[in-house]
Backbone:
């Protein structure tokens, strides 16, 4: 058993789980074209959820802060980006790929900037007074989430808000009898780029080194002469900006959004953070991909089970690895 | 000259008073040993000096400056290093990354690194290994090495020999002697035989109070006092 475990470990260990899941799904689904479509959909969903979850994971790992208000950044990111895209609808209808791409970039940039500023405000006004007090953190961040949802309702109304999408992201690539939605491919590529950037920052820069060390032992980092509270503001702002970007991408994916969007996604985001292991970016990606694939495969194979699939996945993984698949602390 | 001075320090953890009256002076240079039974308040004293817990009332002065209410990071930047009882190494970081992190500018002085590798050769062999994979003794070496990767004036070391093999304890004693040539060490230790070979001055703490101060030579010569304060009679 130990030998088998060592061999699997050398081959990639828990990183192989999505591959194993995809292989099992391939056998059960039978039709290769459906399997490819579902796999791409699962990967795209996983990447968008990864963007929303990665910041939350680092924030919890670094400062032991439970932020239920994280969904507010997702919702606001979606609505800010949608509003910018609606305002630039003339560019989207101009049939110029450059103008459309610029409109999309500006929408994402607006969501990111909003996330940065809102993250700074949220950390300073709401989180800081309740450091080291989990009960108050839960209460106050839940309260903030409700306030944020109601604010969106007041500004954008309760009816579903249509999100215009650039034409170059509409439609699908048809390869043989396989159909791949272009937006899903785009979401996967953008998510992958952000993941690579995060890994590079965490592993190749001094700030990344401090964040990784802080996730393990905040007190010791301070005893080495670094103000973790100041570092935390930066991580919180970056995490909020990533959540807003994730929300913006999700808005483009759904094309019809409501103020409840963030709250609805939050359950999946928390499951991903727990499955991946708190404070671990690689773990968060692994958890997000697993959740994305599982949702799509089960949605096809057993739609009635799809609703419970993420919960079942989380319970199974926690029974096997109580600290998650790739916890940041060893 | 006094480098560190603690005055009537009282520290509470939550609602429980752990330190009731801790006061002693640590002279500059050499090794000052703080002895005491389990639960006497030794670790709390070091953590209070580092600002990890706040003494109230009472004061901590370092090099004449009041550091009682300063942030831990600011205290560390004044030249005080801390080697905690649990070693406090970062397991997912490599040995070298642990050392780099302890430098102010992210660069290790090659001469100091050479000296550290001479003191602890294992750290050179395993410099690219993640720290969680090191043995207990190697982790302790890394923790001490991190404290001396840059010049420090005072190094607080909490029970460094706990659970270590005798050969590693000897190596550690040798390292502390060398480190004490250009830094002051405040050593918390329960292993009296280890402490007596290193300490010049000492204090004994019991139930959150300093119950004895003096020279290590005098204390080591007084078996009755050792028995009364530390229960060392065999």
Residues:
């Amino acid at each position: 058993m130990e030998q088998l475990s060592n061999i699997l470990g050398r081959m990639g260990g828990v990183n192989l789980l999505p591959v194993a899941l995809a292989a099992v799904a391939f056998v059960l689904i039978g039709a290769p074209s459906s399997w490819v479509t579902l796999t791409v959909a699962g990967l795209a969903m996983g990447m968008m959820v990864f963007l929303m979850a990665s910041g939350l994971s680092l924030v919890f790992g670094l400062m032991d802060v439970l932020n239920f208000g994280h969904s507010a950044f997702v919702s606001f990111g979606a609505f800010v980006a949608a509003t910018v895209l609606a305002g630039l609808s003339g560019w989207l209808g101009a049939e110029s790929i450059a103008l459309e791409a610029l409109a999309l970039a500006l929408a994402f940039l607006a969501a990111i900037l909003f996330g940065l500023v809102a993250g700074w405000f949220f950390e300073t006004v709401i989180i800081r007074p309740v450091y080291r007090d989990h009960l108050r953190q839960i209460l106050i961040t839940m309260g903030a989430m409700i306030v944020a949802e109601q604010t969106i309702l007041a500004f954008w109304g309760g009816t579903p808000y249509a999100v215009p999408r650039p034409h170059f992201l509409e439609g699908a690539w048809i390869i043989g009898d396989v159909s791949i939605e272009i937006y899903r491919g785009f979401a996967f590529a953008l998510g992958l780029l952000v993941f690579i950037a995060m890994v590079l920052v965490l592993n190749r820069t001094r700030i990344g080194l401090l964040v990784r060390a802080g996730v393990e032992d905040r007190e010791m980092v301070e005893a080495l002469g670094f103000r973790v509270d100041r570092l935390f503001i930066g991580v919180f702002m970056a995490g909020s900006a990533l959540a807003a970007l994730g929300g913006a991408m999700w808005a483009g994916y759904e094309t019809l959004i409501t103020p409840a969007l963030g709250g609805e996604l939050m359950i999946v985001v928390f499951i991903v953070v727990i499955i991946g292991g708190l404070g671990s970016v690689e773990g968060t990606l692994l958890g997000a991909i697993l959740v994305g694939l599982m949702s799509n495969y089960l949605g096809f194979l057993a739609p009635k089970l799809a609703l419970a699939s993420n919960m079942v996945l989380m319970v199974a993984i926690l029974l096997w690895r109580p600290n998650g698949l790739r916890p940041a602390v060893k | 000259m006094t480098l560190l001075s603690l005055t009537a320090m009282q520290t509470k953890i939550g609602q429980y008073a752990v330190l009731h009256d801790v006061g002693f002076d640590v002279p500059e240079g050499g090794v000052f040993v703080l002895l005491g039974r389990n639960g006497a308040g030794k670790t709390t004293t070091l953590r209070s000096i580092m600002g990890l817990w706040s003494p109230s009332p009472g004061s901590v002065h370092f090099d004449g400056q009041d550091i009682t209410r300063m942030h831990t990071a600011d205290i560390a930047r004044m030249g005080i290093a801390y080697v905690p009882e649990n070693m406090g190494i970062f397991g997912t970081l490599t040995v070298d990354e642990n050392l780099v992190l302890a430098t102010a500018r992210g660069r290790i002085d090659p001469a100091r690194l050479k000296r550290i590798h001479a003191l602890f050769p294992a750290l050179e062999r395993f410099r690219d290994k993640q720290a969680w994979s090191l043995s207990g003794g190697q982790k302790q070496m890394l923790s001490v090495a991190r404290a001396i990767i840059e010049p420090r004036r005072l190094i607080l070391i909490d029970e460094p020999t706990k659970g270590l093999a005798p050969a590693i304890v000897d190596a550690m004693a040798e390292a502390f002697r060398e480190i004490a040539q250009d830094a002051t060490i405040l050593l918390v230790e329960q292993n009296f035989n280890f402490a007596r070979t290193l300490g010049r001055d000492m204090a004994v703490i019991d139930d959150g109070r300093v119950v004895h101060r003096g020279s290590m030579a005098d204390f080591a010569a007084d078996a009755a006092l050792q028995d009364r304060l530390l229960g060392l009679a065999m």
Summary: The mean pLDDT of chain A is 91. The CA atoms of residues 39 and 233 of chain A lie 36 Å apart. Chain A touches chain B at residues 206, 209-210, 212-213, 216-217, 219-228, 328-330 (CB under 8 Å). The first helix of chain A runs from residue 2 to 11.
